[in-house]
Amino acid sequence: MENYNIELFREGLSNLKISLSEEQISQFITYYEMLIEWNKVMNLTTITEFNEVIRKHFIDSLSIVKAMNMNESIKIIDIGTGAGFPGIPLKIAFPKLEIVLLDSLKKRVNFLNEVIEKLKLNKIYTIHGRAEDFSRDSNYREKFDLCVSRAVANLSSLSEYCIPYIKINGKFISYKSGKIEEELKASNKAVQILGGKIEEQVMFQLPDTDIERAFVIINKYKTTPNLYPRKAGMPTKNPII
What we know:
Number of helices: 9
Helix content: 25-40%
CATH superfamily: Vaccinia Virus protein VP39
CATH class: Alpha Beta
Shape: globular
Largest sheet: 7 strands, mixed
CATH topology: Rossmann fold
Protein name: Ribosomal RNA small subunit methyltransferase G
GO molecular function, one term: rRNA (guanine-N7-)-methyltransferase activity
Mean pLDDT: 94
Main location: cytoplasm
Order of helices and strands: HHHEHEHEHEHEHEEH
Distance between the termini: 49 Å
Function: Specifically methylates the N7 position of a guanine in 16S rRNA.
InterPro entries: rRNA_ssu_MeTfrase_G, SAM-dependent_MTases_sf
Oligomer: single chain
Low-confidence stretches: none
């Protein structure tokens, strides 16, 4: 750990009012090292420089504290988690969380399993598959307090992938970049049909960058109709409008 300048990380954590132990900091360093090692043989991230990973992956993932209290023992599913963002940083920083990581690529899921084992994380599980399929499984449908996603997709499509997983009175929080006003307007109908309501947008700038970020907070107030999600690929090809 002495090979890394972690002051940037500590500063970012301080700005978010997150306090981590030395063991948790060490877990983040190990996670970074595994990310870079595995990235040599598979495409996990285009961001590899230490400070950039700290800013654009770790701090960005943890910034959800601006939108929701993460200190509670809640059950979360991370849809399209990729290399584990935001799910693994959230689990390291907030060990009481129970988290499911879902991704459609088996190689990425293998990486996630290695990270979980290496960091000795508990109550965090992986699923290899498509969001459309598992949200029809009674073990997962409407079983989560919170669904999160940093996946790059329009909010209408993401809502169809994510809202079916949330319990009534739960939340779907989407990580978004840039200007989102038009996307919000275009997604209103889909969100309502799926049983949700857009409650709030939390806008901020990622520290030490010019990246504009936003959290779109959707509350679920009624059961998602059985019609949704539609068959694989449909939410992306033909978003509800």
